[in-house]
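Sample intake sheet
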Amino acid sequence: MKLFKHFLAVLLVLSFQFVKVEAQAAQDNPVLFAVARMNHGHISFILDRVKKGSPDYRLAGIYEPDQELVRKYSKTYNLDSSLFYDNLDKMLEEVKPEAVLAFGPTFDHLSVVEACAPRGIHVMVEKPLAVSMNHATKMKALADRYKIHLLVNYETSWYPSTAKAWQLLNDSTIAGTLRKVVVHDGHEGPVEIGTSKEFRSWLTDPVLNGGGALTDFGCYGANLMTYLTNGIQPLSVTAITRQLKPLVYPKVDDDAVIIVSYPESECIIQASWNWPFSRKDMEIYGDKGYIMADNNYDIRVKTAATRNEVKRRITANDIEVYEDPFSYFAGVIRGRIKMRNYNPYSIENNMIVVKILDAARKSAKTGKSIRL
């Protein structure tokens, strides 16, 4: 017993030293990031983190031709004017970043990858990957050809509850065989929550965003289901979209229900700009129990055997998850992180997501289920 305790003590010391060495390595060799556009509401994700400082990455340049936005964010975040460029190619040539973070319209994701991939620059785009399978296929081909990492950033990828739900579903018998997943995502609406005019100008455009609520929030459910099922291909997609507020959102849908069928299960995605409050939650049902991820930290579990619901609060201390997606991206680039197949950030997952969204748009337009 004494020998075993000594072994554990040595193991703990070695593990702590390894973590310290890895953290020091990140600090000594931060990834050089650049940003492409700032007219996405999620731009604060990276600028807030840069302001606080991170040992994993450093911001070296920002491409933004809109001078009003440049002035706005320069003032808000006290950014040096030397960071800004009004030409993407010029920024890439002068700054020579290792990676680019795309914070512009979804339609522009393809052009960012077209500029970065031949230069060997890795790319992370905000969700979803692309406005269509045509764009997504071209982006993946470029990433494969030039051997760059191409990641997609979803807020739910940072959630400890998401990682725990996957673990409980795949590494335990709590839920049993997966039968049904219901995902709720959205908020009161871009106008109603006060998004910026530059964000709304393309978010409510059917070309630049690829749709309305269906695209904006439907992608979350498709991404999570692909993650939970480890990439099982869907059989069919059926969708209904509505314009409940046509005077506010005349060009796009503001409410969508998407049913994705699989060989042994189904996913019901409820994406809306009409919720009474913001929400990102999911219900996972198996033949032996359920797992409810109520938000980023809280989960509820109930099994047929006990019939008692157990509530747990999950943090990053309880399960391996990166709550800073840009540290995660830096870790992938440096080789410290090896992405599991079909994890939420992966290109494999997100090609399926775009396939589902494409089928959902077609289903809503034709009133028919789309076989995949």
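Comment: The radius of gyration is 21 Å. The chain has a mean pLDDT of 93.
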